[in-house]
Design brief:
The complex is a heterodimer. By secondary structure, chain A is an alpha/beta fold. Chain A is built from 8 helices and 11 strands. By secondary structure, chain B is α/β, with parallel strands linked by helices. Chain B has helices spanning about 15-20, 20-45, 55-60, 70-80, 85-95, 100-110, 135-145, 170-195, 200-225, 235-245, 250-270, 295-300, 310-315, 330-365, 380, 385-395, 415-440, and strands at about 45-50, 65-70, 115, 120, 125-130, 150-155, 280-285, 305-310, 370-375, 400-405. Chain B has a 4-stranded parallel sheet, sandwiched between helices. In chain B, strands 8-7-9-10 form a 4-stranded parallel sheet, with helices on both faces. A two-stranded antiparallel ribbon of chain B has the order 3-4. The N and C termini of chain B lie far apart (about 70 Å). The chains are: A alpha/beta, B alpha/beta. The interface of A and B includes residues 79, 81, 119, 121 and 280 of A.
Chain lengths: ~280, ~450
Amino acid sequence: MVVGIDVGATYTKAFALDEDKNVIGRSMVKTGFNLAGAAERGYAEVLTSAGLAEEEVDYVASTGYGRYVVPMRDLQITELTCHAKGAWHQFPQTRTVLDVGGQTVKAIKLDERGKVRSFRLNDKCAAGTGAFLEKTARYMGLDPAEIGSLAMVSKEPVTISSVCAVFAESEVINHLTSGTRPEDIMYGAVLSLAGRAHQLMKRVGMEPEFTFCGGMSRNEAFVKAIKHELKAPVNVPDGDMGHFNGALGAGLLALDRVRKLQAAGEWTNRSHRAVQGVSA
Amino acid sequence: MPEMSVTQAPAPQKEGELVGRGRRDGNRLFKEWYAELDAAAESGDPSAYVFVMGSAAEVLKAFDLNLVFPEINSLQMAVRKVSLEYLNKAEDYGYSTDVCGYVKADVGMHLDGRKHPNGRIPKPSIVVATNMCNTYVKWVEIWQRMYGCKVFVLDIPGQRGIGWSTEPGSEQFENDRRYVQSQLEELIEACVAVTGKPFKIERLQENLAHVNRMAADWSAVLKLNQNIPAPFNAMADGLTYMGVLSAYRGTETGARYMAELREEMEHKVRLGLGTIAEERFRLHGVGPACYSYFRRFLELFQDWGAVYVNSEYLAYAGGGLDLGIQFDVERPLESLAEQLLITGRRSMSNMFFSQDQLADTVRDWKSDGIVYHSVKSCRTVSTGMADSREYLTRIKDVPALFVESDLVDPRLWSEAQFKNRIDAFFEALGARKAAALVAAKG
């Protein structure tokens, strides 16, 4: 049994997998400011969910921006590699992955074996991320959970041209004072975000099939906007699997590592706990 | 016990003394150079402010002018973790946050009475710039306003046409050579006026001969890094070597240093000595390092077993000596003009045509990938990087990483984002190498 933990900016997700890659447990907790604590809570919850005792866990791989502070990890891997692995597992014809999370947006081009060929990330700016939509919602006094349902009823989305999540506030206020409906502002912001994500995808040399994952893949309005922007079919994992994609990838890479160690005759069942970066 | 004679012949170089000698001696020479500048600040001896690209050191040292390199001063402020104080001073004075960090750190130091962490810096008696960097031309005007010093801008004509089309011997090149040479003659007149010393052509010839030795050995040192493992890290060790290349260009000390460095590197290659325990990845650098977090910048790569085996910066910030240029000392001014044209054009054209040369360098130095470090406050260095990266990854299939921070502005360093990109790059590079290994085994 292995566990993949994705310590993201907003949520910490964990997946437990058996040796046949079946999901046997999952957990999601708010990350907060104590990253190691969030990892421990997520780990405890995933074990409970899977009905596992800690000694039954063979390997733990961590990912996400908090990957280096996961206390029980055997291995840390970037979310780029993990999202590629997870997306390839869920949709084996994937060539371009788009992951939109709380603070980052990533476009990943895969080769024919599902390995990362190139990638692009937003840089020093949250305007292209989930945080941008959350701020936009808050400026209008809305709960972020309402973003998707509200934006879906928009009939005349307005252009949100701001390139900055902070300066977007004045633009939103300007629209509100002009009498624009909140749903049109919200969907305008969603479309703006989708446009940015599309630009990032173009820069990695996007090719179909496209797979969209990350927390924002659960937002129905954003999924609609991405499909509209790309004018092509987009794979979107069912339910919350898009949100768990990084943790899934980490779990799958943990399984790969266990098999590699076993093949090399170096497997000693969690006695190998030297922390290292992945190399294959 | 009898006392050991001080005239005893030196013992043969010990293994431990030879390895690392270049770093040790380089650091010592650097301290001595700053000590000389400090002494010049005290005595008022004439000094020339120059730039690492197109310093005309050969001419200036024929007049015994102390050379001050403002770019090196700014870089050193960042390495010593004090650049932000100087940047703030310049911004308080009115300079925009978008202005080149080197310029602002330098302005801050001048506003602070030329007190540099390495010692006092003398006032400029003369300033020599070229048009190789567009900022140089505006930077020198600041000192002119501050000190009323003489400013001399060498105008290096750019190449005509696309690609690398400098053609020594052609009629066009000869016209340009005469144009540059006439400017050098004017520079000599200016130096005579500033120093009150006569121009002696044999001093210039002597300096050119020193550069010839230095360039031949430096070119050889760079090529030695084609070996696996590489005997030096082009970003880490390279910074020390570049400092000596600039500060001691045209001197016997500089020429001897480079010969000894070559000896050290040949020794390391013979013994198979690299810079880290296991050289897993070989990198080529484009753009400078982030000097505000220099150690951390290097660690983020070294932690993955990566070594910079070459760097474009060594070519340009090293004054173009990587080509192993050789002056014809019998035609000193003509030859100096020719080489200024050749090396100057190479640096000016690089932002447009770097890609094919980069691909060749990656191949010859057996690099696994290229790291582009874009400098937020320097568009001159950063322009063209994105296109170059596209070309090399898509057309030449060279893995590339693109990161951005700054030379000297610590506010533009974001370690979490930097590290995430670097880690992901090496994960992908590791997978690529593993796949290539499997394919090679059939």
